[in-house]
Amino acid sequence: MIELRIALSCLALSLILNLVVTAGEFFKPFNVTYDHRALIIDGKRRILISAGIHYPRATPQMWPDIISKSKEGGANAVQTYVFWSAHEPVRGQYNFEGRNDIVKFVKLVGSSGLYLHLRIGPYVCAEWNFGGFPVWLRDIPGIEFRTDNKPFKDEMQRFVKKIVDLMREEMLFSWQGGPVIMLQIENEYGNIEGSFGQKGKNYVKWAANMALGLGASVPWVMCRQVDAPENIIDACNGYYCDSFWPNSHNKPKLWTENWDGWYTKWGGRLPHRPAEDIAFAVARFYQREGSFQNYYMYFGGTNFGRTSGGPNYITSYDYDAPLDEYGILRQPKWGHLKDLHAAIMLCEPALVAVDSPKYIKLGPKQEAHVYSENAHIRAESTNESSNIGSCAAFLANIDEHKAASVSLFGRTYTLPPWSVSILPDCRNTAFNTAKVGAQISVKSTEYSVSSPDISPLQKTMIQDKVFPIPETWMIYQEQLGAWNNDSFTVSGLLEHLNVTKDKSDYLWYITRISVSKEDISFWEKNSVKPMLTIDSMRDLVYVFVNGKLAGSTFGHWVKVEQPLLLVEGHNDIILLSETTGLQNYGAFYEKDGAGFKGQIKLTGLLNGDIDISASLWTYQVGLKGESLQIYTTEGNEKANWTNLTPEAIPSTFSWYKAYFGPPVGNDPVALNLRSMGKGQVWVNGHHLGRYWTLVAPKTGCQEVCDYRGAYDSEKCTTNCGKPTQIWYHIPRSWLKPSNNLLVIFEETGGNPFEISILSYSTKTICAKVSESHYPPLHMWSHPDIVEGRVSITGIAPEMQLQCDKGHIISSIEFASYGTPKGNCQKLVKGNCHAPDTLSVVSQACNGKNSCSIKIANSIFGVDPCHGVLKTLAVEAKCSPNTITLESSVSDL
């Protein structure tokens, strides 16, 4: 019955999605051109705010929610790369299904009323394996990537044409009524162009002409390409792009990658970019004539399978984005940027009406840009009539330390350090980048449900039947070395990728050496051990002697010196070479390869060193468990599994399996692998990715992150002294109602009995809003405000609180209107406090998914301290909706 109910639900969802994505035109067909000020869409200049979303880093079931939350956050466009390696894993064999269904993704974007910027490349970088190029590309005779090289250009043109033709066939270009308004050819080529000399310059011109010749009839972009041809828009990538200008006055100012976070390597700290700083960067961009800005990333997602590049980039691609890896709002970043976007779009009529703003110097580090379509509006004007739509101003204070008071429009404005104030009517401040009014969300992963309305029996059912992994684990020992007839033996060392073709991370190198009695005596007499040396190696090598692990080394082209314990007679040497993501950036990286370079020697022998590089080596690609696909429902029975006991761990190079039930409800699901070492993990045959519990340095993190001043990836980091990643996303759509197969390949030894499956959600929300905050942005569009009949300054600010979808505010843990102190989860009352605050907030919010409270004395029935600036501070708990939970529990 459960399976039938879920199957019907999935069928209904599929029918809805099909209706959405096969609806034909999403817009009335329109043309897209541009001038020096902006993209011109259907004859009108537009200000565009784009959300970077990579479709393969989420599941199709997640796409609608991610797109919806992006639109709710104020985006009117979406940007994505096109991943060549995902779509053509074998030359001439294409994959546009599942997470690679780019057509469905583009149609979902269009059905949401959003535009799309499609970055075909086809080189993408993106911290993606091999930069998005299929590995088979490197095997084409005579090929050199990204230069004036005919074999490469032929393959590149073939794939780019494939994607353009696909978009045209599916009626997805703007002039066909689709959402695609802009394309990209190449990607940050200017960073490496000089490495190729004249051939690089020739390649840029060829790529531009090739793209324009495909008949897409929408603008093309080259980012970070100062020599982009006249008919290609060059665009900026970086943390700040306000000072960027295109290479021609005829081109608009576009920001294709606004880095709102950064990627992470195994063993690294976790970078974070403050909401105040990224808002400052965005406001400065639009202040200084920017017209299109894309967040890289708005949703980062997950490097499922073996898609992470590097080497050594982690499986999570969270990127500190406004939507986290699981698709949940990251607050306050998402909310603060939503308010910023609303303020910018209030300014859009004025921003696009003029060719350039009026610049006003306000101080040594303070300046204003005024956009006015009416010549009579002057900086000193005191006219109180509304100018919304006809005049907009941005006031910036780029001082990193000091606030400033500036005079403009007959008024005085106070600007916090490193901030921009936005005035949609050239009069009143709607938003300041340094003043955060959005809530803070504290997320958690929990075994049990905290709702007070769940009965003890239901809690027991949830805990006992859903969350824990059973204590019954099984183990299968991976066979070391050669394990089937596909192995082969040749003289000398072969390059790793030339053998594996990246079908597996693993390649076995096997040889045999003989040791004499005299060598043994020499070592014993001199108390030394022979050493295996490898001149250069990447990314990881395990060294086995006679079936026992001798040691390992990891790094990027590092020397290996491994002591060996050898015996008299024959000794079997096995080297397991392993990649942890292929290089994705730089010139000539197709020549980088993997595995070993130089010589492999035995040192410390009686008669001197022996070069074994030219010896007979047997090669075996991959793991036996991979070949048998024992991580799938169909293939797992092919292995000789035995019961695992706690006494038998840790066990290296072992496969583990167990079955589990999913957490109740619809919250995202996370797998906790803190107790494991290194390896890969699958659920129901779906490859979650690589895992590795390398620990970040103990130092270098900041207890308090100061948003002021230029940001870089080392400025605001966390997680010092902890494993870089322990949580791994299991998409809900990959789970069954019960008996989900979890399979893990563990290399170094870990304890699977401590693994847990957990639900992930926002548990605590906090907010602080004072009387000095600005009126709600939605009020600016009220007719009375627009027509100037009512002053926006007379409207009280509001606090808005919201739990995740399917959750409600179950309790108010703290509430104080007055002078509260402290931060989220550490709030305390000040000397001034309205006694009815808790009851007022509880009545407004308890039992609701979201609520809003005005910041005014009348709301709380008293002015608790006359003449003092008052603040409302609230901390609330979010819990799953009782009805949803009871429905889920009833299915158990």
Structure description:
The structure is a single chain. This protein is an alpha+beta fold. The chain has three domains: 2-325, TIM Barrel, CATH 3.20.20.80; 441-477 and 627-761, Jelly Rolls (Sandwich); 488-616, Galactose-binding domain-like (Jelly Rolls, Sandwich), CATH 2.60.120. It has 16 helices and 42 strands. It has an eight-stranded parallel beta barrel with strand order 4-5-6-7-8-9-10-12, surrounded by five helices. Helix 7 (275-287) packs parallel to helix 8 (333-353). The chain starts with a helix and ends with a helix.
From the structure above, extract its key features.
892 residues; alpha+beta; TIM Barrel; Jelly Rolls; 8-stranded antiparallel sheet; 30% strand; globular; disordered N terminus
Using the 3D structure, state the CATH architecture of the largest domain: Alpha-Beta Barrel
Helicity, as a percent range:
10-25%
**What is the tally of beta strands?**
42
Q: Could you tell me how far the N terminus lies from the C terminus, measured between alpha carbons in angstroms?
A: 11 Å
Helix/strand/pairing category: alpha+beta
What's the CATH superfamily of the largest domain, by name?
A: Glycosidases
State the domain count.
3
CATH class of the largest domain: Alpha Beta
User: Could you name the ranges where pLDDT drops below 50 across 5 or more consecutive residues?
Assistant: 1-24, 446-466, 885-892
Strand content: 25-35%
Output mean pLDDT: 91
Question: Given the C-alpha coordinates, what overall shape results?
Answer: globular
Quote the CATH topology of the largest domain: TIM Barrel
